[in-house]
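re: ur question from earlier - yeah i can do the single chain one, its not a big deal. heres the input i used so u can compare w yours
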Amino acid sequence: MAKSLIEELPRIVSEGRREAAQILERLSSGTQIGLQTNELVLPSKDVSGLFKGSTPQIPNAFTMAGGNGEWMNRLIYGDNLLAMQALLAGDAQTGLPSLRGKVDLIYIDPPFDSKADYRTKISLPGTDIQQKPTVIEQFAYADTWEEGTISYLKMICPRLILMKELLSDKGNILVHIDWHVASYVKLLMDDIWGKENFKNEIIWHYQTFQGQVRSYFPRKHDNIFFYSKSSSSTFHLLKDNNAEETIDFTRWNEFLNENNEITGAYYPETDSRFKGYYNRFIKENHRKPGPNDVILRIEGNTIDSVWDIKAVDPKNKEERVGYATQKPEALLERVLNACSNPGDLVCDFFGGSGTTAAVAERLGRRWITCDIGKPASLVMRKRFIDQEVKPFLYQSIGDYQKEAFRNNKRYKHVGDLSQVVLGLYGALPFTLEQTNDRNFGYIKGTRTLVMVDSPNRLTTAATIRKAVEAKASLLGGDWEKVVVLGWNFAFDISQAIQKYENSNVEVLVIPPDLLDKLAKKGYKKLIDDKSVRFSSLQYLVAKPLVVKQNGDQDEIDVELENYVLLSPDNIPLDDKDKEKLQQVLERDPLSLIEYWSIDPDYDGVTFRSTWQDYRENMENDNDPLHCVYKTRLRVPHKAQRKVCIKAVDVFGFESQVIKEV
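and the output i got, formated as tokens:
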């Protein structure tokens, strides 16, 4: 008989503590996960197809917190467990010290419904399609809900422990949850943070239409658990602005009769506050109050633990950003005003639509936000640019070291995945006597080496370098070509491929639905019907730059020419949506560009995004489904420069092209 959740809780906590302890131990041993900077974003969205400013100069762009360096806020794409490890370790490349004990407020709004639809609706000219989660997201969601609430608690427990390591002594954490898992998460919080540090269970009562229900009361609230790190945590008691509840002893003449005499009918004889303010007025002004003097005004009620705040109105175009679980800014304003101070560092490790970071920016707080979903990362980046926030870093996890596949029961029947992928590509594995690296194989009868990357890793420039080195050294090194098969790709992969173009290396994409095909059809069936196709990466095409010198400035015309997407078969879509996508590819390929940006003075290391355009930016073309594809940059004159153009498509795939002037 299966154990109940209550019986399982001790094991869940024990395993969560063990996992967190192992992570912290690895940090002290020098085995660390780094952050890879995809963009230094200097918000400057297109408004007319013309960038009129000069390239902003950020001194010591990667000398951040601490010392005399300049702090930069961060949007991180990737698993928050890995992101927190990177933040705890510090980041030498970007000058970020360890944030252990440096975070002042953590608010998280993790997913809390195992039946949630994680697909993303994408609107394209003339049609809508539904994108399935990426391979990395599939693993994350499968891990989170495979055993229902038990899996969810296994996911959240080590993360809560790492959050405690990040929080400062004056810090607070607020965990936003609902009835699905609230009671169990409360038990975890009590154990990790201590019951003595529990402040409130906040009830957020929202007003949305649910329809009629017959067997229970409509569920119209979420739970927010509020804990502090210590007894000296930051907290500000808040008042509401309810005018009807204002205690307003405003004018002295309200307490006088027609003869200018105080009367019992008007004078609040039993109100000690009034008497105190009356006496203080006399002491401070050396006279009694006159007919029009204000002596006391107490506005609003003290805000308690039940918050009536409306959910985001779907028709509110100013606040709504098109993200299903978006929380209202008014909710986060209350959290930040009560539990932090201006200048504090606020973190949200389930960033979603970016509301926490957006409000933190507006209220003068520093921020870090993170999400494993590509759609969320796209939404947040555009939202921050729309808001014209201060320059921020868009980063990803540099190396996915967590091999979740090996522990994922959902795919146990698949066996050694690298061997499976090699077979489907038509390659043979090496024997253990030849090499103990199971990711390598070869094409029989040729001198072609094949390398398979992990589904929980980003294929990066380092991966390509490893493959090229193996081509030169593995089993004598007499290989003519090496093929790299990857699932997920870093933003600069096309640049890495160009770097090694003379090394005869080819990079191909493993179909993102391969795991589901294996589960449904099995390995032998896929081998027999030859239905698995590996395709090349997508790429961006830009027209030759047109440069005109005008005094001490250069005018550079940048124009996109084409976008070539990998085969629709290798996009996580249903068959009917693949057909729709193919039609869009044929008639309007540039409409797949979700976001593009330009660094007019690329140094080959850091992409400084100084101009951006994206769908839904209608300040230039009044067209929510297309970007503008041409712009003119005016920048300080240089005899030589590299212009780097980066694009992100609607599925989150990134491409870049470099033009030299």
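Residues 56-68, 243-253, 264-270, 399-415 have pLDDT under 50 and may be disordered. not sure if urs matches, ping me
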